[in-house]
Design a protein that fits this description.
Potassium Channel Kv1.1, Chain A, three-stranded mixed β-sheet, mainly alpha, 3 strands, single chain, elongated
Length: 542
């Protein structure tokens, strides 16, 4: 009659195993020590029971160990169970000191062939470790598996960079098993920036496979490749990290409580972008990168470097590029970001003229569009509006009509601001660079303080130098003017026509100014009651 089971082992409070002490103690040195210690303390044999909490793999892991022990130290080891068996063997002390060719030795022998495993098997083993991640990491298993994946990734990067775009496209979805002949081969062809750009626009075959792994595993993988944080110069790995982070924002809940798990990956990706710079990433591409990595709390230094890169090419940006969300700062768009980028641009291009002046004016037109876009935001403060409007030098704008339109939109959207605040808002206007139509509209605008309207009109009067001559001699006809310049008759006729047009324009300007002058007298008399009291009298029109 077989002897009854004399040992109870409770695993994680989920399952109780009834075992023979002699069988288990033969292989498990850890359990043997516990049982011997209890016997020395006088425990009765029938009372022998052990509770093990947080066992690797839970009841499933201990069941595999029991099968090994009851099968005379034999069990089929596969890629699917080797990691779990290895962790259980270490945990229970199933070493050679207890018994020759014990479970730990068998799993270590199996793991020696890890560098010959297929990609799919290696990935499957790595995912299996998620249930007992702490043990796999502490026992060095993760390091071994991740080092194998890192070799796959690095060799794939080399092939992707050295191969032609068509060849890479055809193999982008294939596994390394179908390209084993190419895995360790390197081409002597030169890698050009154009080839790098085409590479970055494609995904390597392993992108989607690794995208399912948790961030702590990806971080270890990046460290194993030697391209971690500021050391990242790997273009393909950078692309993968951006792909991974983008998917994380779309498929996982990323918030302030867990974005620290991704922070190192975002920083590594950003350093990779900075290392290749604008030669590889377009202005729009850089803004795309900024939108992704900003969600994971970038460090100040690396963010500054990325913004320098973007600021240097901001003249290539579009309005959509600048519209970066600023919900976490209480406004619809990130105003501070745009101000910083423009300041970087001005610092980098402010000393040169010519081509840089053209870039400056291009940015000026872009910022005017941006001002009109952000003006309706109810949470936009006047100081922020002025910060955007005044971050460019006066030379960036040939005309201030765009700024005036943005001011008008702001005033319509913020009707309760005081006259002092309205006057302060208008300080960013250069009245001499307003067109006559804009000045006329400004003077009639009931939302504009009267003093500002007066300044605009006065600046328009100063732009017509021949007003006195024209008003004193209104009957002088252009045909009565004679020019003696020694040129040919054709040249004289052409200049005569131009002079006629200029005089006509000045005459119409004077008439319009006279009408506007009368309108403003009535306009000011109505608004003066709304204007705060002043110690000095209001200026008059000349």
């Amino acid at each position: 009659m077989p002897k009854p089971c004399d040992l109870q082992i409770n695993i994680d409070g989920q399952q109780i195993f009834l075992l023979k002490e002699k069988v288990i103690s033969k292989y498990c040195g850890g359990l043997k020590k516990i049982l011997n210690h209890r016997k020395r303390r006088g425990h009765v044999k029938q009372e022998l029971g052990i509770r093990i909490n947080d066992f690797p793999g839970g009841p499933e892991g201990f069941e595999l160990v029991s099968m090994f022990c009851y099968n005379n130290g034999k069990i089929q080891i596969t890629e699917a169970n080797v990691c779990l068996l290895h962790c259980c063997a270490v945990y229970l002390g199933m070493t050679e000191e207890v018994l020759s060719n014990n479970l730990l030795q068998q799993t270590e022998t199996f793991l020696q062939g890890i560098f010959n495993w297929k990609w799919s098997d290696t990935l499957m083993i790595l995912k299996s470790c998620e249930r007992f991640h702490a043990y796999a990491d502490g026992y060095g298993l993760l390091e071994k598996i991740i080092s194998v994946l890192a070799k796959f990734v690095q060799n794939s990067d080399s092939n992707l960079l050295m191969s032609s775009p068509s060849a890479s496209a055809s193999s982008s979805s294939s596994s390394p098993e179908t390209n084993s002949a190419k895995r360790f081969s390197f081409s002597s062809k030169k890698t050009t920036p154009e080839k790098i750009k085409s590479t970055l626009s494609r995904k390597a075959w392993w992108f989607d496979d690794l995208a399912t792994l948790p961030p702590n595993i990806i971080e270890k993988l990046v460290q194993a490749t030697g391209a971690y944080k500021a050391d990242n110069k790997d273009l393909v790995l950078t692309r993968f990290l951006l792909h991974y982070l983008k998917l994380a924002t779309q498929t996982r809940v990323v918030n302030c409580s867990n974005n620290s798990e991704y922070a190192a990956l975002a920083e590594t990706a950003t350093y990779g972008v900075i290392s290749v710079g604008k030669k590889t990433f377009s202005c729009r591409g850089l803004f795309w990168v900024l939108r992704i990595v900003s969600k994971f709390g970038l460090g100040r230094d690396v963010r500054t470097e990325l913004e320098k890169l973007i600021g240097g090419v901001i003249e290539q940006a579009t309005l959509d590029d600048l519209l970066v969300s600023g919900h976490d700062m209480g406004v619809y768009y990130d105003i501070n970001l745009v101000i910083r980028l423009v300041r970087v641009f001005v610092d980098m291009n402010g000393s040169d003229e010519g081509m840089c002046l053209q870039k400056l004016k291009r940015v000026g037109r872009l910022i005017d569009k941006y001002l009109r876009e952000i003006s309706p935001d109810q949470n936009l403060k006047i100081s922020k509006f002025l910060g955007v409007a005044e971050c460019l030098p006066d030379s960036a704008r040939d005309c201030y009509d765009g700024v005036y339109k943005a001011i008008d939109i702001y005033l319509q959207s913020h009707p309760i601001i005081t006259f002092e605040e309205r006057s302060r808002l208008c300080r960013c206007l250069n009245y001499t660079k307003l067109t006559f139509e804009a000045s006329k509209d400004l003077a009639k605008n009931p939302r504009i303080p009267p003093r500002v309207a007066m300044q605009a009109l006065i600046s328009q009067q100063s732009k017509v130098p021949t007003i006195d001559y024209v008003t004193e001699s209104p009957r002088v006809k252009p045909s009565q003017l004679v020019l003696y310049n020694g040129k040919t008759r054709n040249s004289f006729t052409k200049e005569k026509k131009e002079m006629e047009l200029n005089i006509d324009k000045m005459q119409w300007g004077v008439i319009e100014l006279a009408k506007l002058h009368k309108e403003m007298n009535g306009h000011v008399s109505k608004l003066i009651l709304l204007d705060p009291p002043r110690t000095s009298s209001s200026p008059r029109f000349c």
